[in-house]
Amino acid sequence: MTETVLPRSHRPPGWTLPAGACDCHAHVFGPYERFPVSHRMHYAAPLAPAAAHRGMLDRIGLAHGVLVQPGAYGEDPSPILDALSQGGGRLRGIAAASERVPQADLDAWDAAGIRGLRFNDMTVPGGAGPFPGSVGTEALAAMAPGMRERGWHAEIWAGIDRHVENLPLYRASGLPIVLDHMAGLQIARGLDDPSFRMILDALREGWLWIKLVLCRCSQDFPDYADARPFHDALIEANPERVIWGSDWPHLRLAERAPDVGHLLDLFAEWVPDAGLRQQILVDNPRKLYGF
């Protein structure tokens, strides 16, 4: 590793989270002597092993966490499996796999706490082509039957226009579909963007889920005020199909990495109803991930 960075230190939010609250989007990296990456990282390597992730959850007051496979580890979820083995049942994982991965491995992952597969259609920022090690949505149709058998869902990172293009594929999969990072929306297009309206329509249908993760769709650091109307619209469309995530350890964001406690304070401000907070932070993740 030529460069490593520590995740920023996070403060607790200024309010008491409901019992069972879950951060539905984070990553673990390393320890690199045990879990070296297999693909090039287009960001400084974070020092973010399982113990650091659990420490973040404990400081913030989060009971549960969901760990998502980064492209740098390809189709090897060993760091996530290691974290799950230490998590005492408080964690779940989202791996990445194509038909190359043996079914026996998928069964072992399921027993360990993996609850879905991630597909990534994003391109490298400032470059061309996909993130090295990622599995694109072209693999979804082939993987869907085995995922359905295991009760898994598909998690997808893509721009909003790509999502709209893929809506028929998503529907045909017969899987719950979870869109990362507020569905890759484009704030500059406004609430009337036809692509955003199509995502809202799919969200209302009940098979689509959205992760309320602010820091990848808004550049309005640290309060992300320009994202609030979209955040409100997603919740209004179907409060039973939205979940919250921090995106810890905030890859590539450097000095613009958000504080997780502040993100939760924004959530409390934007979602003042205690029952709705309970649904988004506790009830919805419990249903989706089987806590």
Automatic annotation (TrEMBL):
UniProt KW Transmembrane helix keyword: no
Gene3D superfamilies, A to Z: Metal-dependent hydrolases
Keyword Zinc: no
A GO term, aspect molecular function: hydrolase activity
Keywords: Hydrolase
Residue ranges occupied by any Amidohydrolase-related domain in the UniProt entry: 22-291
InterPro entries from the UniProt entry: Amidohydro-rel, Aro_Compnd_Degr_Hydrolases, Metal_Hydrolase
Organism domain of life: Bacteria
PANTHER family: BARREL METAL-DEPENDENT HYDROLASE, PUTATIVE (AFU_ORTHOLOGUE AFUA_1G16240)-RELATED (PTHR35563)
Official protein name in the record: Predicted metal-dependent hydrolase, TIM-barrel fold
